[in-house]
Protein backbone atom coordinates (compact mmCIF):
# COMPACT_ATOMS: atom_id res chain seq x y z
CA UNK A 1 0.00 0.00 0.00
CA UNK A 2 2.71 2.52 0.78
CA UNK A 3 4.38 1.69 -2.50
CA UNK A 4 1.16 2.40 -4.43
CA UNK A 5 0.66 5.72 -2.66
CA UNK A 6 4.23 6.66 -3.43
CA UNK A 7 3.71 5.85 -7.10
CA UNK A 8 0.53 7.91 -7.24
CA UNK A 9 2.24 10.87 -5.58
CA UNK A 10 5.10 10.69 -8.06
CA UNK A 11 2.74 10.59 -11.01
CA UNK A 12 0.76 13.55 -9.62
CA UNK A 13 3.95 15.48 -9.19
CA UNK A 14 4.92 14.80 -12.79
CA UNK A 15 1.49 15.91 -14.01
CA UNK A 16 1.68 19.01 -11.82
CA UNK A 17 5.13 19.94 -13.10
CA UNK A 18 4.02 19.44 -16.69
CA UNK A 19 0.98 21.63 -16.09
CA UNK A 20 3.05 24.35 -14.48
CA UNK A 21 5.65 24.13 -17.21
CA UNK A 22 2.94 24.47 -19.81
CA UNK A 23 1.52 27.51 -18.05
CA UNK A 24 4.99 29.07 -17.83
CA UNK A 25 5.60 28.39 -21.49
CA UNK A 26 2.25 29.91 -22.46
CA UNK A 27 2.94 32.95 -20.25
CA UNK A 28 6.40 33.41 -21.75
CA UNK A 29 5.06 33.18 -25.30
CA UNK A 30 2.24 35.62 -24.49
CA UNK A 31 4.62 38.10 -22.86
CA UNK A 32 7.06 37.85 -25.77
CA UNK A 33 4.25 38.35 -28.27
CA UNK A 34 3.00 41.38 -26.36
CA UNK A 35 6.47 42.93 -26.21
CA UNK A 36 6.97 42.20 -29.92
CA UNK A 37 3.64 43.85 -30.75
CA UNK A 38 4.35 46.89 -28.55
CA UNK A 39 7.85 47.28 -29.98
CA UNK A 40 6.70 47.14 -33.60
CA UNK A 41 3.60 49.28 -33.07
CA UNK A 42 5.69 51.89 -31.22
CA UNK A 43 8.39 51.74 -33.89
CA UNK A 44 5.81 52.17 -36.63
CA UNK A 45 4.17 55.11 -34.83
CA UNK A 46 7.57 56.76 -34.30
CA UNK A 47 8.39 56.27 -37.98
CA UNK A 48 5.13 57.95 -39.00
CA UNK A 49 5.74 60.90 -36.66
CA UNK A 50 9.32 61.28 -37.91
CA UNK A 51 8.17 61.26 -41.54
CA UNK A 52 5.60 63.98 -40.84
CA UNK A 53 8.18 65.99 -38.87
CA UNK A 54 10.66 65.91 -41.77
CA UNK A 55 7.96 66.96 -44.23
CA UNK A 56 7.13 69.87 -41.96
CA UNK A 57 10.78 70.96 -41.92
CA UNK A 58 11.00 70.63 -45.70
CA UNK A 59 7.95 72.89 -46.16
CA UNK A 60 9.56 75.53 -43.95
CA UNK A 61 12.89 75.69 -45.77
CA UNK A 62 11.87 78.61 -47.96
CA UNK A 63 10.59 80.65 -45.02
CA UNK A 64 12.84 83.56 -44.11
CA UNK A 65 11.37 84.72 -40.80
CA UNK A 66 12.73 82.66 -37.86
CA UNK A 67 9.38 83.04 -36.10
CA UNK A 68 7.82 81.02 -38.92
CA UNK A 69 10.69 78.69 -39.78
CA UNK A 70 11.24 77.76 -36.15
CA UNK A 71 7.71 77.99 -34.84
CA UNK A 72 6.68 75.20 -32.48
CA UNK A 73 5.50 72.11 -34.33
CA UNK A 74 3.02 69.40 -33.34
CA UNK A 75 2.46 65.96 -34.83
CA UNK A 76 -0.29 63.69 -33.50
CA UNK A 77 -0.93 66.09 -30.59
CA UNK A 78 2.71 65.92 -29.48
CA UNK A 79 5.44 68.50 -29.91
CA UNK A 80 8.37 67.69 -32.19
CA UNK A 81 11.62 69.48 -33.06
CA UNK A 82 11.56 71.56 -36.29
CA UNK A 83 15.35 71.35 -36.62
CA UNK A 84 17.29 69.30 -39.15
CA UNK A 85 19.94 68.52 -36.51
CA UNK A 86 17.44 66.59 -34.38
CA UNK A 87 17.82 62.81 -34.26
CA UNK A 88 15.15 60.55 -32.80
CA UNK A 89 16.85 57.89 -30.66
CA UNK A 90 14.95 54.59 -30.27
CA UNK A 91 13.85 53.82 -26.73
CA UNK A 92 15.85 50.59 -26.54
CA UNK A 93 19.12 52.49 -27.13
CA UNK A 94 18.31 54.85 -24.29
CA UNK A 95 17.39 51.91 -22.07
CA UNK A 96 20.67 50.13 -22.86
CA UNK A 97 22.58 53.31 -22.03
CA UNK A 98 20.96 53.61 -18.60
CA UNK A 99 21.46 49.90 -17.87
CA UNK A 100 25.21 50.39 -18.28
CA UNK A 101 25.46 53.80 -16.63
CA UNK A 102 27.45 52.89 -13.51
CA UNK A 103 30.81 54.17 -14.70
CA UNK A 104 31.81 56.44 -11.82
CA UNK A 105 32.67 59.47 -14.00
CA UNK A 106 35.99 59.79 -12.18
CA UNK A 107 34.32 61.16 -9.05
CA UNK A 108 36.69 60.94 -6.06
CA UNK A 109 35.47 59.20 -2.93
CA UNK A 110 37.26 61.77 -0.78
CA UNK A 111 35.07 64.75 0.18
CA UNK A 112 38.14 66.96 0.59
CA UNK A 113 39.08 66.36 -3.03
CA UNK A 114 35.58 67.39 -4.12
CA UNK A 115 35.91 70.53 -2.00
CA UNK A 116 38.93 71.45 -4.13
CA UNK A 117 37.57 70.50 -7.55
CA UNK A 118 33.95 71.56 -7.05
CA UNK A 119 33.92 74.23 -4.35
CA UNK A 120 30.69 75.44 -2.78
CA UNK A 121 30.38 79.08 -1.74
CA UNK A 122 27.77 80.93 0.27
CA UNK A 123 25.73 83.20 -2.04
CA UNK A 124 26.01 86.91 -1.38
CA UNK A 125 22.31 87.25 -0.63
CA UNK A 126 22.59 90.75 0.83
CA UNK A 127 24.25 92.03 -2.33
CA UNK A 128 21.71 90.19 -4.48
CA UNK A 129 18.79 91.72 -2.57
CA UNK A 130 20.09 95.29 -2.75
CA UNK A 131 21.79 95.42 -6.16
CA UNK A 132 20.22 97.03 -9.22
CA UNK A 133 22.95 95.54 -11.40
CA UNK A 134 22.75 92.23 -13.27
CA UNK A 135 23.83 89.44 -10.92
CA UNK A 136 24.21 85.71 -11.36
CA UNK A 137 24.42 82.86 -8.82
CA UNK A 138 24.50 79.18 -9.81
CA UNK A 139 22.93 76.62 -7.48
CA UNK A 140 23.69 73.57 -9.63
CA UNK A 141 22.25 71.98 -12.77
CA UNK A 142 20.12 74.75 -14.40
CA UNK A 143 19.02 76.44 -11.19
CA UNK A 144 20.23 80.04 -11.37
CA UNK A 145 19.36 83.08 -9.28
CA UNK A 146 19.64 86.23 -11.39
CA UNK A 147 18.74 89.89 -10.90
CA UNK A 148 17.79 92.39 -13.55
CA UNK A 149 16.74 95.99 -12.95
CA UNK A 150 15.48 95.35 -9.43
CA UNK A 151 13.77 92.02 -10.20
CA UNK A 152 14.95 88.64 -8.91
CA UNK A 153 14.63 85.73 -11.34
CA UNK A 154 14.96 82.04 -10.49
CA UNK A 155 15.38 79.47 -13.27
CA UNK A 156 14.49 75.75 -13.33
CA UNK A 157 14.18 75.45 -9.53
CA UNK A 158 15.62 72.18 -8.21
CA UNK A 159 16.67 71.93 -4.55
CA UNK A 160 16.36 68.18 -4.03
CA UNK A 161 19.20 65.89 -2.91
CA UNK A 162 18.77 63.68 -5.98
CA UNK A 163 17.70 64.38 -9.54
CA UNK A 164 14.08 63.22 -9.08
CA UNK A 165 13.47 64.05 -5.41
CA UNK A 166 15.33 63.67 -2.14
CA UNK A 167 15.42 59.87 -2.48
CA UNK A 168 15.36 58.86 -6.16
CA UNK A 169 17.72 59.44 -9.07
CA UNK A 170 21.46 60.21 -9.26
CA UNK A 171 22.65 61.98 -6.11
CA UNK A 172 23.78 65.60 -6.09
CA UNK A 173 27.59 65.69 -6.10
CA UNK A 174 27.83 68.75 -3.88
CA UNK A 175 25.55 70.23 -1.23
CA UNK A 176 23.14 73.01 -2.20
CA UNK A 177 24.81 76.40 -1.52
CA UNK A 178 21.84 77.54 0.55
CA UNK A 179 18.22 76.61 1.01
CA UNK A 180 15.36 78.11 -0.98
CA UNK A 181 13.88 79.46 2.24
CA UNK A 182 16.93 81.71 2.66
CA UNK A 183 15.86 83.94 -0.24
CA UNK A 184 12.36 82.84 -1.22
CA UNK A 185 10.85 86.17 -0.16
CA UNK A 186 12.93 88.06 -2.74
CA UNK A 187 12.00 85.98 -5.83
CA UNK A 188 9.73 87.75 -8.30
CA UNK A 189 9.91 85.55 -11.40
CA UNK A 190 10.49 81.85 -12.03
CA UNK A 191 11.19 80.62 -15.56
CA UNK A 192 10.86 76.91 -16.35
CA UNK A 193 12.44 75.49 -19.50
CA UNK A 194 10.74 72.06 -19.46
CA UNK A 195 9.23 69.47 -17.18
CA UNK A 196 12.11 67.01 -16.59
CA UNK A 197 12.71 66.23 -12.92
CA UNK A 198 16.19 67.79 -12.86
CA UNK A 199 14.65 71.09 -14.05
CA UNK A 200 11.37 71.17 -12.16
CA UNK A 201 11.32 70.16 -8.50
CA UNK A 202 7.76 69.65 -7.26
CA UNK A 203 8.70 70.37 -3.65
CA UNK A 204 10.21 73.73 -4.70
CA UNK A 205 7.07 74.51 -6.70
CA UNK A 206 4.90 74.02 -3.62
CA UNK A 207 7.21 76.22 -1.52
CA UNK A 208 7.22 79.07 -4.05
CA UNK A 209 3.51 78.68 -4.76
CA UNK A 210 1.63 81.73 -6.00
CA UNK A 211 4.04 84.20 -4.43
CA UNK A 212 5.94 84.40 -7.75
CA UNK A 213 4.98 84.66 -11.40
CA UNK A 214 5.76 81.42 -13.24
CA UNK A 215 6.68 81.57 -16.93
CA UNK A 216 6.31 78.13 -18.47
CA UNK A 217 6.19 76.52 -21.94
CA UNK A 218 2.97 75.46 -23.66
CA UNK A 219 1.11 72.50 -22.22
CA UNK A 220 2.54 72.71 -18.70
CA UNK A 221 -0.14 74.90 -17.14
CA UNK A 222 -2.42 72.02 -16.13
CA UNK A 223 0.40 70.42 -14.15
CA UNK A 224 0.66 73.61 -12.09
CA UNK A 225 -3.10 74.06 -11.73
CA UNK A 226 -3.43 70.54 -10.31
CA UNK A 227 -1.02 71.64 -7.59
CA UNK A 228 -2.92 74.80 -6.78
CA UNK A 229 -0.61 77.17 -8.62
CA UNK A 230 -2.60 79.70 -10.68
CA UNK A 231 -0.05 82.50 -11.10
CA UNK A 232 1.37 80.99 -14.29
CA UNK A 233 1.85 82.38 -17.79
CA UNK A 234 2.13 79.79 -20.54
CA UNK A 235 4.20 80.79 -23.56
CA UNK A 236 4.80 79.56 -27.08
CA UNK A 237 8.12 79.96 -28.93
CA UNK A 238 8.80 83.59 -29.94
CA UNK A 239 5.97 84.83 -27.74
CA UNK A 240 6.74 87.92 -25.61
CA UNK A 241 4.91 89.35 -22.59
CA UNK A 242 5.60 92.23 -20.22
CA UNK A 243 5.97 91.37 -16.55
CA UNK A 244 3.03 92.44 -14.37
CA UNK A 245 3.39 96.14 -13.50
CA UNK A 246 6.76 96.45 -15.21
CA UNK A 247 6.12 97.33 -18.88
CA UNK A 248 9.88 97.91 -19.25
CA UNK A 249 10.62 94.23 -18.53
CA UNK A 250 9.81 91.70 -21.25
CA UNK A 251 9.87 87.90 -20.95
CA UNK A 252 10.52 86.22 -24.30
CA UNK A 253 10.13 82.50 -24.87
CA UNK A 254 12.54 81.23 -27.55
CA UNK A 255 13.03 77.79 -29.15
CA UNK A 256 15.30 75.00 -27.94
CA UNK A 257 16.07 71.54 -29.33
CA UNK A 258 15.13 69.00 -26.68
CA UNK A 259 12.11 66.98 -25.51
CA UNK A 260 9.73 66.74 -22.56
CA UNK A 261 7.97 64.11 -20.49
CA UNK A 262 9.25 61.30 -18.21
CA UNK A 263 7.35 62.42 -15.09
CA UNK A 264 4.80 59.66 -15.76
CA UNK A 265 4.76 56.85 -18.36
CA UNK A 266 3.50 57.55 -21.88
CA UNK A 267 3.60 61.35 -21.66
CA UNK A 268 6.56 62.11 -23.94
CA UNK A 269 6.48 65.51 -25.67
CA UNK A 270 2.97 66.50 -24.62
CA UNK A 271 4.41 69.79 -23.32
CA UNK A 272 6.82 72.20 -25.00
CA UNK A 273 10.45 72.98 -24.05
CA UNK A 274 12.19 76.34 -24.44
CA UNK A 275 14.79 78.95 -23.48
CA UNK A 276 14.14 82.52 -22.35
CA UNK A 277 15.35 86.06 -22.97
CA UNK A 278 14.50 88.48 -20.16
CA UNK A 279 15.10 92.08 -21.14
CA UNK A 280 14.91 95.49 -19.49
CA UNK A 281 15.68 98.87 -21.00
CA UNK A 282 19.38 98.51 -20.30
CA UNK A 283 20.19 94.77 -20.15
CA UNK A 284 19.21 91.34 -21.46
CA UNK A 285 19.61 87.91 -19.90
CA UNK A 286 19.53 84.72 -21.96
CA UNK A 287 18.68 81.58 -20.00
CA UNK A 288 19.24 78.53 -22.14
CA UNK A 289 17.26 75.45 -21.21
CA UNK A 290 18.44 71.98 -22.21
CA UNK A 291 19.19 71.99 -25.93
CA UNK A 292 21.28 70.49 -28.65
CA UNK A 293 23.22 72.79 -30.96
CA UNK A 294 21.51 74.26 -34.02
CA UNK A 295 23.60 77.06 -35.63
CA UNK A 296 20.70 78.70 -37.46
CA UNK A 297 18.58 78.74 -34.31
CA UNK A 298 21.18 80.46 -32.13
CA UNK A 299 21.97 82.94 -34.90
CA UNK A 300 18.26 83.75 -35.18
CA UNK A 301 18.07 84.38 -31.41
CA UNK A 302 21.22 86.50 -31.58
CA UNK A 303 19.94 88.53 -34.53
CA UNK A 304 16.77 89.31 -32.66
CA UNK A 305 18.05 89.96 -29.14
CA UNK A 306 21.75 90.89 -29.19
CA UNK A 307 23.49 92.55 -27.46
CA UNK A 308 23.05 90.22 -24.47
CA UNK A 309 24.52 91.10 -21.09
CA UNK A 310 24.43 87.66 -19.44
CA UNK A 311 23.89 84.19 -20.89
CA UNK A 312 23.49 80.97 -18.87
CA UNK A 313 24.38 78.17 -21.30
CA UNK A 314 24.44 74.40 -20.62
CA UNK A 315 27.80 72.65 -21.14
CA UNK A 316 27.33 69.17 -19.61
CA UNK A 317 25.73 65.76 -20.26
CA UNK A 318 27.28 65.46 -23.72
CA UNK A 319 28.70 61.92 -23.75
CA UNK A 320 28.22 59.53 -25.50
CA UNK A 321 28.05 61.92 -28.44
CA UNK A 322 25.74 59.87 -30.68
CA UNK A 323 23.16 59.62 -27.94
CA UNK A 324 23.47 63.10 -26.45
CA UNK A 325 24.49 65.64 -29.11
CA UNK A 326 20.95 66.43 -30.24
CA UNK A 327 19.79 66.75 -26.60
CA UNK A 328 22.62 68.61 -24.89
CA UNK A 329 25.45 70.88 -25.94
CA UNK A 330 29.00 70.08 -24.93
CA UNK A 331 31.50 72.88 -24.22
CA UNK A 332 32.55 73.34 -27.85
CA UNK A 333 28.97 73.61 -29.11
CA UNK A 334 28.19 75.99 -26.24
CA UNK A 335 31.05 78.26 -27.32
CA UNK A 336 29.73 78.22 -30.89
CA UNK A 337 26.33 79.20 -29.51
CA UNK A 338 27.99 82.05 -27.58
CA UNK A 339 29.38 83.49 -30.81
CA UNK A 340 26.10 82.87 -32.68
CA UNK A 341 24.31 84.88 -29.99
CA UNK A 342 26.48 87.87 -30.79
CA UNK A 343 29.05 87.37 -27.99
CA UNK A 344 27.23 88.14 -24.72
CA UNK A 345 29.25 90.19 -22.28
CA UNK A 346 29.39 87.13 -19.99
CA UNK A 347 28.33 83.56 -20.64
CA UNK A 348 28.36 81.11 -17.73
CA UNK A 349 28.38 77.33 -18.15
CA UNK A 350 25.55 75.54 -16.32
CA UNK A 351 24.03 72.03 -16.33
CA UNK A 352 27.19 70.21 -15.25
CA UNK A 353 28.83 68.82 -12.11
CA UNK A 354 25.51 68.35 -10.31
CA UNK A 355 23.76 65.08 -11.21
CA UNK A 356 25.85 62.65 -13.25
CA UNK A 357 23.56 61.36 -16.02
CA UNK A 358 26.06 60.95 -18.87
CA UNK A 359 29.46 59.38 -19.50
CA UNK A 360 31.98 62.25 -19.48
CA UNK A 361 34.40 62.82 -16.58
CA UNK A 362 32.74 64.96 -13.94
CA UNK A 363 35.18 67.84 -14.55
CA UNK A 364 35.29 67.53 -18.35
CA UNK A 365 32.72 70.28 -19.06
CA UNK A 366 34.81 72.90 -17.25
CA UNK A 367 38.17 71.62 -18.46
CA UNK A 368 37.13 71.35 -22.11
CA UNK A 369 35.42 74.76 -21.97
CA UNK A 370 38.58 76.46 -20.68
CA UNK A 371 40.80 74.81 -23.29
CA UNK A 372 38.51 75.36 -26.28
CA UNK A 373 37.63 78.93 -25.25
CA UNK A 374 41.31 79.88 -25.18
CA UNK A 375 41.82 78.38 -28.64
CA UNK A 376 38.71 80.01 -30.10
CA UNK A 377 39.61 83.39 -28.66
CA UNK A 378 43.08 83.31 -30.23
CA UNK A 379 41.72 82.23 -33.62
CA UNK A 380 38.84 84.72 -33.54
CA UNK A 381 41.14 87.54 -32.55
CA UNK A 382 43.44 86.87 -35.50
CA UNK A 383 40.56 86.59 -37.97
CA UNK A 384 38.37 89.39 -36.66
CA UNK A 385 41.17 91.90 -36.06
CA UNK A 386 41.80 91.72 -39.78
CA UNK A 387 38.16 92.49 -40.52
CA UNK A 388 37.86 95.04 -37.65
CA UNK A 389 35.00 93.00 -36.10
CA UNK A 390 36.86 91.76 -33.05
CA UNK A 391 34.70 91.71 -29.90
CA UNK A 392 37.03 92.18 -26.96
CA UNK A 393 34.62 92.53 -24.04
CA UNK A 394 33.19 89.01 -24.01
CA UNK A 395 33.85 86.01 -21.79
CA UNK A 396 32.68 82.43 -21.32
CA UNK A 397 33.48 80.89 -17.95
CA UNK A 398 32.19 78.72 -15.11
CA UNK A 399 31.59 79.56 -11.47
CA UNK A 400 31.66 77.71 -8.17
CA UNK A 401 28.34 76.58 -6.73
CA UNK A 402 26.85 79.57 -4.93
CA UNK A 403 29.37 82.08 -6.24
CA UNK A 404 27.73 85.44 -6.93
CA UNK A 405 28.89 87.33 -10.02
CA UNK A 406 27.97 91.01 -10.36
CA UNK A 407 28.03 92.76 -13.73
CA UNK A 408 28.23 96.46 -12.89
TrEMBL record:
Gene Ontology MF term list: N-acylphosphatidylethanolamine-specific phospholipase D activity
Biological processes, Gene Ontology terms: N-acylethanolamine metabolic process; N-acylphosphatidylethanolamine metabolic process
Transmembrane portions of the chain: 21-39
Metallo-beta-lactamase domain sequence ranges: 153-352
A GO CC term attached to the entry: cytoplasm
Entry keyword set: Membrane, Transmembrane, Transmembrane helix
Domain of life: Eukaryota
Pfam families named among the record's database cross-references: Lactamase_B_2
InterPro entries: Metallo-B-lactamas (IPR001279), RibonucZ/Hydroxyglut_hydro (IPR036866)
PANTHER family: N-ACYL-PHOSPHATIDYLETHANOLAMINE-HYDROLYZING PHOSPHOLIPASE D
Name the UniProt record assigns to this protein: Metallo-beta-lactamase domain-containing protein
